[in-house]
């Protein structure tokens, strides 16, 4: 079956969304499936996403990694990640969307501290234990705040989102102790720049210049705090995007190379082979043979 290029949803595309300009949205999973028939197919988002499932079964695939749905579970996605699912009809849950600017306007330095939203996290899944009773309650409260607007609608929702993320942060870090890293503001700033500029800025020097430091110092800080140099993190971010396009679209290899900022498709193929041991064609063929 021919794959179509995956769609990247904007907040304004969701049904009955009077809060799109405010930068947040929330909906029950069953309502979303009913209103957008193709929502289970691979797609991306321009915003952060929390998917909380409390009933059902199936699979949920994020950037090529497939998770078994065994509720209660919470999934975390950042802008640009591609996901899709195959769920049983009885699956129930909430989807909570928010743009970075919405959260950062109130909590400027917190968003990139959350381990579950970091590009270097080891998993996008948190399985909720019986002790995590506050999480379902906070989702319920946030949903009620969303569907029953009042004069302080936006601020109430933002406060509940903050409480929810703080609660979940503790649970995620307890479940994934190896992911806990106390990153400096400099490294956090580098990661922010990388996530928005990786297609056009592919060298450590370009980011170091924006941060007012030397490339060697940036590489040193990243290696010390993230276990990889800045250059390696740049390559990882590029390869993640390349993988999304190869696995989720039928774009020609040349078009994929242009989409990630390579003007020479032959050099692009050499870059991919050098860092993965496979050509772009082999990566795509291997996925198609699964």
The number of domains: 2
Shape: globular
**What's the SSE pattern?**
EEHEEEEEEEHEHHHHHHHHH
Q: What is the CATH architecture assignment of the largest domain?
A: Sandwich
**How many beta-strand segments?**
10
CATH topology of the largest domain: Jelly Rolls
Q: DSSP strand (E) fraction?
A: 15-25%
> From the helix content, strand content and strand pairing, which structural class follows?
alpha+beta
User: In this structure, how is the largest beta sheet organized?
Assistant: 5 strands, antiparallel
Oligomer: single chain
User: What top-tier CATH class of the largest domain fits best?
Assistant: Mainly Beta
Mean pLDDT: 90
Radius of gyration: 20 Å
Model regions low in confidence, pLDDT < 50 over at least 5 residues = none
- Main sheet: which strands, in order across? 2-9-4-7-10
Q: Tell me the name of the CATH homologous superfamily of the largest domain.
A: Regulatory protein AraC
Task: Report the end-to-end length measured between terminal Cα atoms.
Answer: 14 Å
Helical element count? 11
Helix coverage percent: 40-55%
Characterization of the model:
This protein has helices spanning 29-35, 100-104, 134-147, 153-175, 185-197, 204-211, 215-226, 230-248, 253-259, 265-276, 280-288, and strands at residues 7-9, 24-28, 43-45, 48-55, 58-62, 65-69, 73-77, 83-87, 92-98, 125-127. The longest helix is centred in the middle third of the chain and has 23 residues, at 153-175. The protein has 290 residues and is α+β, with helices and mostly antiparallel strands. The chain folds into two domains: 7-179, Jelly Rolls (Sandwich), CATH 2.60.120.280; 185-288, Orthogonal Bundle (Arc Repressor Mutant, subunit A). The model has no long low-confidence stretch (mean pLDDT 90). Helix 3 (134-147) packs antiparallel against helix 4 and helix 6 crosses helix 7. The chain contains eleven helices and ten strands. Strand 5 (58-62) and strand 6 (65-69) form a beta hairpin. Helix content is 44%, strand content 17%. The strands form three sheets. Strands 2-9-4-7-10 form a five-stranded antiparallel beta sheet. Strands 6-5-8 form a three-stranded antiparallel beta sheet, with no helix packed on it. A two-stranded parallel ribbon has the order 1-3. The radius of gyration is 20 Å and the shape is globular. The two termini are 14 Å apart.
């Amino acid at each position: 079956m021919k794959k179509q290029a995956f769609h990247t949803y904007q907040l304004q595309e969701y049904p009955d969304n009077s809060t799109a300009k405010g930068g947040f949205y929330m909906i029950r999973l069953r309502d979303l499936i009913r209103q957008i028939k193709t929502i289970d197919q691979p797609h991306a988002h321009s915003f952060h996403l929390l998917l909380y499932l409390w009933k059902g079964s199936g699979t949920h695939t994020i950037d090529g990694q497939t998770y078994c749905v065994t509720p209660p579970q919470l999934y975390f996605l950042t802008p640009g990640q591609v996901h899709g699912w195959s769920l049983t009809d009885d699956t129930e849950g909430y989807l909570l969307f928010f743009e970075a600017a919405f959260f950062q306007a109130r909590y400027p330095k917190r968003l990139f501290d959350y381990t579950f939203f970091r590009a270097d996290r080891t998993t996008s899944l948190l399985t909720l234990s019986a002790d995590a009773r506050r999480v379902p309650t906070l989702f319920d409260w946030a949903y009620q705040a969303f569907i029953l607007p009042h004069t302080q609608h936006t601020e109430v929702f933002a406060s509940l989102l903050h409480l929810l993320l703080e609660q979940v942060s503790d649970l995620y870090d307890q479940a994934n102790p190896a992911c806990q890293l106390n990153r400096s503001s400099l490294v956090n700033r580098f990661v922010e720049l990388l996530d928005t500029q990786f297609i056009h800025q592919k060298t450590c020097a370009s980011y170091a210049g924006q941060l007012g430091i030397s490339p060697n110092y940036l590489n040193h800080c990243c290696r010390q705090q993230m276990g990889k140099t800045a250059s390696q993190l740049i390559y990882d971010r590029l390869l993640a995007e390349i993988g999304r396009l190869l696995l989720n679209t039928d774009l020609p290899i040349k078009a994929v190379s242009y989409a990630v900022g390579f003007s020479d498709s032959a050099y692009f193929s050499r870059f991919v082979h050098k860092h993965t041991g496979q050509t772009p064609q082999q990566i795509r063929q291997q996925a198609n043979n699964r």
